Amino acid sequence: MDRFQKLFAELPKDIDSVLITSDINRRYFTGMKSSAGTVIAFRDRAYLIIDFRYIEKARNTVKSAEVIEQKKLFAQLHKLLHEHSAHNMVIESQTMTVSEFDAYKREFPEIELIGSDLLSNAISALRAVKDEQEIACIRKAQEIAEAAFEHILGFIKPGVTEREIALELDHEMLRRGAEALSFDTIALSGANTSMPHGVPSDKRVEEGEFVLMDFGAVYNGYHSDMTRTVCIGKCSEEMEKVYNTVLEAQLACLEQARAGMTGAELDKIARSIIEHAGYGDCFGHSLGHGVGMEIHEKPNAAPSNNSVLKAGTVITVEPGIYIAGKFGVRIEDFVILTENGSVNLTKCAKNIIYLQ
Ligand SMILES: [Mn+2]
């Protein structure tokens, strides 16, 4: 079954056509990266309507859909809807704008436009379970990030700034083949590490501080995500205690994670260890999130997610403890869930690293 067939299998039987307009989902279904284009799929056939800038690439590479050069989009869609005797069309509610939706309603009065979350949710569910090709891209993205991490350990020393560390990680990932960065790299030091998503500044790294780095590479459309916290010189007893608590919480999750548990159950494993150590109030974010063509995608390992995690899901395990004004620690790996456990995609060591 190709991805369109899998998608229709997830949708109610009476859905005639689906309209895919987001860049990421268009790439997921056609394999082609572009900043424009429209996919319309029927149960027996799919089409990619795309403009002159992309047409040569599309004709040469897209196999899953018939490629049509875009002239007058709405007229072309009308023709296809008519040829396939479609009565309804479901759109991507989570990415189509209200003004686009209004335009489609105006242009297609004879078609029932379905603006519910039906399609967006069905695609998220498909994308949550990765196939082997997708896993291979994610592994490659992670290899690039880990090579950059090995490099950065030799770069960090007292006197370098957070921004210099972030830039060096970015440069190293791009040099090693990342097509993009997964997100704006986080590199924080000292008291700044208590802000989970702080922005790198011109602050210089000092002896006795933590440096927290959260970063990832994109390879062939797929993201990686990792966080490491390292110590410059010696750290205080409290810093060591917090580090080891986060590590214990993370290792327990990695040990117990498997398909069949809910996102809330996975989150709870880390949360109870951190609460038990007396830092419950200092772990204010959820344990993890899905990773794939987007850096944050479904499913979440969060107290609010009572759905069961499926085999083939790639999800982060990133507990943290953040003490405002003092310091913070986060350790993040990501794993593929299997029926019996999980496979860790992150190979880097994570016992506390003291850089001299
Ligand atoms: Mn993450």
Describe what is shown at a glance.
With 356 residues, the chain is α+β, with helices and mostly antiparallel strands.
Explain how this protein is built:
By secondary structure, this protein is an alpha+beta fold. Helix content is 36%, strand content 22%. A 6-stranded mixed beta sheet has the order 4-3-2-1-5-6. Helix 3 (52-61) links the parallel strand 3 and strand 4. Helix 7 (132-153) crosses helix 8. The longest helix has 22 residues, at 132-153. Manganese (II) ion (MN) binds next to loops.
Give the class from helix and strand content and strand pairing. Answer: alpha+beta
Low-pLDDT ranges: none
Q: What ligands can be seen in this structure?
A: manganese (II) ion
Proper CATH architecture of the largest domain: Alpha-Beta Complex
List keywords for this structure.
356 residues, alpha+beta, Creatine Amidinohydrolase, Chain A, domain 1, Creatine Amidinohydrolase, 2 domains, 6-stranded mixed sheet, 4-stranded mixed sheet, elongated, binds manganese (II) ion
